[in-house]
Design brief:
Layout: E1 2-5, H1 7-26, H2 33-51, E2 54-61, E3 65-67, E4 72-81, E5 90-95, E6 104-108, E7 110-112, E8 117-124, E9 130-142, E10 148-163, H3 172-178, E11 191-202, H4 214-220, E12 224-229, E13 235-241, E14 249-250, E15 253-254, H5 255-272, E16 276-282, E17 286-289, H6 299-307, H7 318-328, E18 334-338, H8 344-357, E19 362-368, H9 371-378, H10 384-409, E20 413-417, H11 422-435
Parallel strand pairs: 3-10, 13-16, 13-18, 18-19, 19-20
Antiparallel strand pairs: 1-10, 2-4, 4-8, 5-6, 5-9, 7-8, 9-10, 11-12, 14-15, 16-17
Helix pairs in contact: 1-2, 5-6, 5-11, 7-8, 8-10, 9-10
Length: 440
């Protein structure tokens, strides 16, 4: 435990220095008073530090898990013995930059009369997934004169596991959707939707005429229509490009984390609907490839696997990744591909790989709407440099539109939305494909 002077002590010494010079100039024999005053101030600092007491107990309360983009509370509790004075203690934590910019956060402590202890809380916002360490805690408190700080340093080996954000899956709107019978715990047959034949029923006004079975109607001399059942047990793969383009931030969080949050929400609904879900992540090589999950009780396995999707400062190898994925899939599946493209060569290789995949599987391509690029294009240029930026941004936007148009011509379904809406749009696309029987 150490002590050091406060800012008040420094200001006091600075204020007394001119007086000491003036005293030495006016009455030279009295110059010895200046060092004596300095010694008195030093003695007061030492006495103030002694009267500040000691920290009898210091505790850190930190959760073991957190979600990216969601508030995380770190609480410090302190008990003091022999302390005099009313100044508030202060705490500082050395944390991983994933938890706080610069790897440091500081906050004051307040007195709680009920527990007769001091406590303070730091509200942090995790900005990247992974394991974040809390390395050290600095606690300091002033003496009664405010001339000295007493300080105590505690080292820790705490790890906070930052996982993907599941807040959309817990939203009230989604919970209302999951109350529907088709998403219940017991799988029920849902007639009238899908493409799987269930039974013949007498045709009634309002039914889709395309479902009339003319042969059976002629045989029974009355109009009969096919009743279809929504398909279940459909394989769905969420594939993530973890390359450098997907690591760029969107409103403070990397694109990959926005994508993971939207995918996990849709995966949870798909499991409730009786389908099978797997995750597949890649960059220059395959990073994560999970088996198919068939039960919502195993959803935590998907959550844990999504947390392992690392940030890679490298270009994604779509040729290797999508050919590997195609070899793993034994039956027709829905492949939901989250990707980003920045250069023509990478986009061309991606289109070729998707073209081979779409011959056997249904592909849903999800891309975040680039609001920053759009703003650069629409901004009124104020200089020659701004004109160059606007022209380059417009060229990238046109290239982006061209790539998406080529993917549509291949038969790929496209979901392009701002990050706030991508989860809802993806869920709508999945439900539309499922109702229309366009997956299996």
């Amino acid at each position: 435990m150490t002590f050091y002077p406060t800012a008040r002590t420094t200001l006091l010494l600075v204020a007394l220095a001119p007086l000491a010079l003036l005293l030495a100039a006016v009455a030279e024999p009295l110059w010895v008073l200046a060092p004596l005053v300095g010694l008195v101030i030093v003695a007061l600092v030492v006495a103030d530090a002694a009267l500040a007491g000691r920290a009898a107990d210091v505790r850190l309360i930190a959760p073991g898990d957190a979600e990216i983009g969601e508030s995380l509370a770190l609480t410090v509790l302190a008990d003091f013995a022999g302390r005099r004075g009313t100044g508030s203690p202060e705490a500082a934590l050395a944390v991983d930059p994933r938890l706080a910019a610069g790897g440091r956060t500081a906050f004051p402590l307040a007195y709680d009369p009920a527990s007769a202890s001091w406590s303070g809380t730091a509200e942090l916002l995790p900005n990247r997934r992974g394991s974040a360490a809390i390395a050290a805690l600095w606690l300091r408190w002033p003496g009664p004169l405010g001339l000295a700080w007493r300080q105590r340093v505690e080292t820790f080996d705490r790890i906070v596991r930052i996982r993907p954000n599941l807040a959309p899956a817990r939203s009230p709107a989604l919970q209302m959707l999951l109350r529907d019978a088709q998403f219940g715990l017991v799988a029920r047959r849902i007639r009238g939707e899908g493409s799987q034949f269930e039974a013949l029923a007498e045709y009634e006004p309002g039914m889709d005429r395309r479902r009339i079975d003319w042969k059976s109607s002629a045989r029974h001399v009355r109009l009969l229509a096919k009743e279809m059942e929504a398909e279940r047990n459909l394989p769905i793969v969420f594939a993530f490009d973890c390359g450098q383009a997907m690591c760029e931030p969107v409103e403070g969080l990397p694109r990959i984390d926005r994508a993971v949050s939207a995918a996990l929400t849709t995966a949870f609904v798909a499991l409730k609907a009786g389908d099978r879900v797997a995750l597949f992540g890649f960059a220059a090589r395959v990073l994560v490839a999970t088996p198919f999950i068939v039960d919502t009780r195993q959803f935590r396995r998907l959550h844990a696997a999504a947390a392992e999707l690392d940030y890679r400062p490298e270009e994604a190898n779509f040729t290797l990744a999508l050919s590997t994925l195609a070899a793993r899939l034994q039956r027709r599946s829905l492949v939901v591909l989250f990707a980003e493209f920045t250069d023509p060569t990478g986009a061309e290789l991606m289109i070729e790989s998707v073209a081979r995949l779409v011959t056997r599987h249904r592909v849903l391509f999800v891309v975040l709407h680039d609001e920053e690029l759009e703003a650069m294009t629409a901004r009124e240029p104020a200089s020659v440099q701004a004109i160059g930026v606007a022209v380059a941004a417009d060229a990238l936007a046109r290239q982006r539109m061209l790539v998406l148009a080529r993917l549509r011509r291949l038969g790929v379904d496209i979901v392009e939305a701002p990050w706030r809406e991508v989860g809802t749009r993806l869920l709508d696309a999945y439900l539309t494909l499922k109702r229309g029987g366009g997956i299996g």
